[in-house]
Every structure is written in structure tokens, then in C-alpha cells.
């Protein structure tokens, strides 16, 4: 079973990177903007990763086995239908390499 420890481990890494961004940002008129942009980027990436990780760790709904077969059959049917439609709209000239491929 997965644990919540990776959330805190990655948080420590992000905080360390934010500290490095605050300390090592070059001096200049845009120092505050650069520092803020780097820190907001790190915070946003961490929050997105954390929400995704926790959503997989504790899903709101569990998958139902009865729907899996239905969706697999539906996907296979649509895929076969799509390929049949493509095959009927192509002329034999595509094999011989001449003219337009689509039937008007």
C-alpha cells in the first residue's frame, strides 16, 4: 500500500529549491519578479503533483468491473467501424499510386 511519505519528501525538496531560488537569484531591478516567478512555478508544480498523487492514493470512486467489459466492447466496435469507413472511402488508386484517394 502506498504511503503519504512521498508527499512530505517532495515537499522538502521543493522547499529546498525555493530557498536556493531566493538565495541565488541574481541582483538587479527584476530580482523580485524572477524570485517570485521561480517560487510560484515550484509551488504550482508541487501542488499539481500532490493532488494527482493523492487522488490516485485515495480515489473517490472505485472502478466497477461490470462496466469494464461494456466499455472495452464499445471501444472495439467504434474502432472497427472507423477503419471500415476509411477503407470504403479510399479508391483503389491509392494502391497503384495515382490520383486522388477520396471518393467524391
UniProtKB/TrEMBL annotation:
<keyword id="KW-1133">Transmembrane helix</keyword>
<dbReference type="GO" id="GO:0046961">
    <property type="term" value="F:proton-transporting ATPase activity, rotational mechanism"/>
</dbReference>
<dbReference type="InterPro" id="IPR008389">
    <property type="entry name" value="ATPase_V0-cplx_e1/e2_su"/>
</dbReference>
<dbReference type="Pfam" id="PF05493">
    <property type="entry name" value="ATP_synt_H"/>
</dbReference>
<keyword id="KW-0812">Transmembrane</keyword>
<dbReference type="GO" id="GO:0007035">
    <property type="term" value="P:vacuolar acidification"/>
</dbReference>
<comment type="similarity">
    <text>Belongs to the V-ATPase e1/e2 subunit family.</text>
</comment>
<keyword id="KW-0813">Transport</keyword>
<dbReference type="GO" id="GO:0000220">
    <property type="term" value="C:vacuolar proton-transporting V-type ATPase, V0 domain"/>
</dbReference>
<keyword id="KW-0375">Hydrogen ion transport</keyword>
<dbReference type="GO" id="GO:0012505">
    <property type="term" value="C:endomembrane system"/>
</dbReference>
<keyword id="KW-0472">Membrane</keyword>
<feature type="signal peptide">
    <location>
        <begin position="1"/>
        <end position="22"/>
    </location>
</feature>
<keyword id="KW-0406">Ion transport</keyword>
<keyword id="KW-0732">Signal</keyword>
<feature type="transmembrane region" description="Helical">
    <location>
        <begin position="32"/>
        <end position="55"/>
    </location>
</feature>
<protein>
    <recommendedName>
        <fullName>V-type proton ATPase subunit</fullName>
    </recommendedName>
</protein>
Amino acid at each position: 500500500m502506498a504511503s503519504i511519505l512521498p508527499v512530505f519528501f517532495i515537499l522538502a525538496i521543493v522547499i529546498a529549491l525555493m530557498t536556493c531560488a531566493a538565495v541565488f537569484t541574481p541582483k538587479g531591478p527584476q530580482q523580485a519578479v524572477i524570485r517570485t516567478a521561480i517560487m510560484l512555478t515550484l509551488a504550482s508544480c508541487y501542488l499539481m503533483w500532490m493532488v494527482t498523487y493523492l487522488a490516485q492514493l485515495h480515489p473517490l470512486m472505485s472502478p466497477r468491473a461490470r462496466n469494464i467489459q461494456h466499455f472495452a466492447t464499445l471501444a472495439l466496435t467504434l474502432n472497427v467501424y472507423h477503419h471500415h469507413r476509411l477503407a470504403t472511402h479510399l479508391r483503389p488508386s491509392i494502391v497503384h499510386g495515382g490520383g486522388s484517394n477520396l471518393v467524391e
